[in-house]
Design brief:
The protein is an alpha/beta fold. The protein contains 14 helices and twelve strands. The strands form three sheets. A seven-stranded mixed beta sheet has the order 2-8-7-6-5-3-4, with helices on both faces. Helix 4 runs parallel beside helix 10, helix 5 runs parallel beside helix 6 and helix 11 runs parallel beside helix 14.
Length: 395
């Protein structure tokens, strides 16, 4: 069968593949510790669920405007202004089917063949594939583990050319948990503005930062940066609403309008019921966000400490999100396992622990573990990893 060239340039999401493999084992009756998904294990807060019930009962179940209902767009603007001191207008907002959809819309609207897109390593899996799908070329910037994977402004500046169209930033970062300093972010934003390069800032994990850090948005730098900045946000992580599929983009009106054109021929509107629930999430009590952050902080402390007691494993302390990105190069060198992809297959098959290989994120020496699961599961999974590595020569 002859397929389009653009489809051949991409692959199935690695995180989706891990989820599918773990699900198959669970369906066969195996007890799998699943560290693969980037999904909160907390239930969606009750007030949000009740808003959805009310939407159904009031028959709010029809199509809406493709860009989202006015009530939700205003709620996004108000919540962002309250938390990040921004000043967006309704024509600068697009409601999307999750944050990933917003990223796809943006790259599709901006990138043509041979346009260059700067992507720091490690990167979230979709960034690379969506650029390739649209015919662009990724220019990778490799961050350093000793810098806790934070990309520096001089690294970004060193790779910019006349073909650079877009810089993708993700802080807090998936998979590393890296959080960039506000000063470095400002330097990058100033360079991009001077050179008329767009920035996509993926802020889906912005509320989950540790060690006294405060949530930050690049849009907080002021309106002077708005013309070349697109904020992608999501309610999935912040409000434990992954299955509801609600994201949003904040950006220049003309670009938002172009993204809307794409969406109008793709998904049309986000679910009307989910939109009503999202209004309640943004306007209602925010206690659940603080409670999740406190619990994630405890889990982070536990899993990093546990992993660093396993011979052959070294794990940095992430500053945000809910992932750890341990280095397992010593494990690979001292065992018969050649790559982290092979290690992850063995961990799933032999130890029934699901993790994602670093190759999916652009590195060769790491695996990603999500600690968005219970402390009991974290302890069980860490012990299974320890025993498995002991059998492969790590003792």
């Amino acid at each position: 069968m002859k397929l389009s060239a653009r489809v051949s340039r991409i692959s199935l999401s690695s995180t989706a593949a891990v989820l599918a493999a773990a699900t198959r084992l669970k369906d066969e009756g195996h007890d799998v510790v699943d560290f693969g998904p980037g999904e909160p294990d907390f239930p969606t807060p009750e007030n949000i669920k009740q808003a959805a019930v009310q939407a159904i009962q009031s028959n709010f179940t029809k199509y809406t405007a493709t860009e989202g209902i006015s009530e939700l767009k205003e709620a996004i603007i108000d919540r962002h202004a309250q938390e990040f001191h921004t000043a967006y207008r309704p024509d600068q907002v697009l409601v999307t089917v999750g944050g990933k959809h917003g990223i796809f819309n943006l790259v599709s609207a901006l990138i043509e063949a041979d346009d260059e897109v700067v992507v720091p390593i490690p990167y979230w899996v979709t960034f690379k594939d969506v650029v390739h799908y649209c015919g662009g070329r990724c220019v990778f910037v490799r961050t350093l583990e000793e810098d806790n994977f934070r990309v520096r402004s001089d690294q970004i500046e060193s790779v910019l050319t006349g073909k650079t169209r877009l810089i993708i930033l993700n802080s807090p970062n998936n998979p590393s948990g890296a959080v960039m300093s506000e000063s470095e972010l400002q330097k990058i934003a100033e360079t991009a503005r001077e050179r008329k390069i767009f920035i996509l800032t993926d802020e889906c994990y912005s509320h989950f930062v540790y060690g006294g850090r405060r949530p930050f948005s690049l849009a907080s730098l002021g309106r002077a940066f708005y013309d070349h900045l697109v904020v992608v946000g999501s309610l999935s992580k912040t409000y434990a609403m992954t299955g509801w599929r609600v994201g949003y983009c904040l950006g220049p009106p003309d670009l938002i309008k172009s993204m809307l054109k794409i969406q109008s021929h793709c998904t049309s509107n986000t679910s009307s019921i989910s939109q009503r629930a999202a209004v309640e999430a943004l306007r209602g009590p925010q206690d659940s966000v603080r409670e999740m952050l406190q619990e994630y902080s405890r889990r982070r402390d536990f899993i990093v400490t546990a992993l660093n007691t396993i011979p052959g494993v070294h794990c940095n302390w992430p500053d945000g999100a809910f992932y750890v990105y341990p280095n397992v190069v010593a494990v690979l060198k001292e065992s018969a396992i050649p790559t982290t992809a092979d290690l992850c297959v063995r961990l799933l098959q032999d130890a029934h622990v699901a993790v994602v290989p670093g190759e999916a994120f652009g590195t060769q020496d790491h695996i990603r573990i999500s600690y968005a699961t219970s402390q009991e599961q974290l302890a069980m999974g860490a012990e299974r990893i320890r025993k498995f590595l002991g059998k492969t020569g790590q003792s």
